[in-house]
């Protein structure tokens, strides 16, 4: 299914510690600009996904949904911090205009989530998730994996499963727009990330789908569980189209290192962020590679 991701601009009242929106100059796309993009993309795409920043904070979000609905996009999706969906009327409006799927960012249990977003938004996000779910919207809980939440994510996933959420998404931390020192406080060593995936295999079984997004393949178990949906920068470039302000090729920062030459995923991978090597260097990568066999046959 073809999907265009439409960035509405860098608008968001959260101040997430890992987000590039707050450190960049804020710019919001005008309704007219977004209307043109929706019309132009309809020729080639059946589905549209609104993202930002926080798309629900765009002043014309209702009008944008009306437009997408008029253009008969088959699927309308949103990536959101969930806070505005705590309002049942707002939720119903967007559902009536075709909202069928929502990725709600919840990064941990209450304390970690509120620390990560630097606001008291947890209760609203959970209420938003409930409202969306109760209105028949297909929901996914999205979490960026990092030091402050690695211990607590299984708890929020347990809660999501009890609410009937069918899908989760685990997203790799990206250094884009972030000071090196800050990135180094948040990033998890490769070996620990790999162990995290192995340690939580039984938790992942609770969901129909587990999206693992932007990780290099060698961080994940060599045999992916049946419900894992692996999305990398490499696969995204072939399947999705990005249209808008924040579309940026973070792959410029990636390169292959020695270990990649022998790896069976070498032909479908951009490699590591060599300048940072995720802050822990090649030694940490070598240790991670000892856990699984990624050698070419
Ligand atoms: S090519 Fe390199 S970065 Fe990509 S999966 Fe293989 S070892 Fe990892």
Provide a descriptive summary of the structure in words.
With 297 residues, the protein is α/β, with parallel strands linked by helices. Residues 244-248 have low confidence and may be disordered. It has one domain (3-249): Aldolase class I (TIM Barrel, Alpha-Beta Barrel), CATH 3.20.20.70. The chain is built from twelve helices and eleven strands. The two termini are 32 Å apart. The longest helix is centred in the middle third of the chain and has 13 residues, at 122-134. The chain has helices at residues 31-42, 61-70, 88-96, 110-117, 122-134, 153-163, 180-186, 190-199, 201-204, 233-239, 258-261, 281-291; strands spanning 3-7, 47-51, 75-80, 99-105, 138-145, 167-172, 209-213, 228-231, 240-243, 254-255, 272-273. Helix 1 (31-42) packs parallel to helix 2 and helix 8 runs parallel beside helix 12 (281-291). A nine-stranded parallel sheet has the order 8-7-6-5-4-3-2-1-9. A two-stranded antiparallel ribbon has the order 10-11. The protein is globular and about 50 Å long. 36% of the residues lie in helices and 18% in strands. It binds iron/sulfur cluster.
């Amino acid at each position: 299914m073809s999907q265009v991701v439409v960035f509405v601009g860098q608008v968001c009242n959260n101040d997430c510690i890992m987000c590039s929106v707050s450190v960049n100059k804020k710019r919001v796309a005008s309704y007219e600009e977004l209307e043109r993009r929706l019309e132009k993309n309809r020729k080639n795409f059946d589905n549209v996904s609104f993202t930002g920043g926080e798309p629900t904070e765009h002043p014309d979000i209702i009008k944008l949904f009306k437009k997408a609905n008029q253009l008969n996009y088959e699927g309308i999706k949103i990536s959101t911090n969930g806070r505005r969906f705590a309002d049942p009327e707002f939720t119903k409006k967007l559902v009536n205009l075709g909202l069928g799927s929502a990725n709600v960012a919840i990064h941990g249990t209450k304390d970690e989530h509120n620390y990560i977003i630097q606001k008291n938004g947890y209760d609203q996000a959970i209420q938003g998730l409930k409202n969306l779910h109760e209105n028949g919207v297909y929901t996914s809980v999205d979490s960026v994996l990092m030091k402050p939440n690695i211990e607590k994510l299984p708890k929020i996933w347990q809660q999501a499963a009890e609410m009937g959420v069918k899908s989760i998404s685990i997203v790799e931390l990206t250094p884009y727009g972030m000071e090196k020192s800050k990135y180094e406080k948040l990033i998890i060593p490769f070996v620990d990330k790999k162990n995290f995936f192995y340690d939580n295999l039984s938790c992942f079984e609770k969901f129909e789908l587990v999206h693992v997004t932007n990780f290099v393949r060698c961080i994940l178990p060599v045999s992916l569980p049946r419900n894992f949906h692996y999305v990398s920068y490499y696969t995204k470039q072939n399947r999705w189209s990005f249209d808008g302000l924040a579309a940026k090729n973070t792959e410029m920062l990636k390169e292959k290192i020695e270990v990649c030459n022998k790896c069976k995923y070498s032909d479908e991978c951009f490699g590591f962020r060599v300048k940072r090597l995720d802050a822990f260097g090649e030694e940490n990568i070598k240790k991670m590679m000892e856990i699984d066999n990624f050698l070419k046959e």
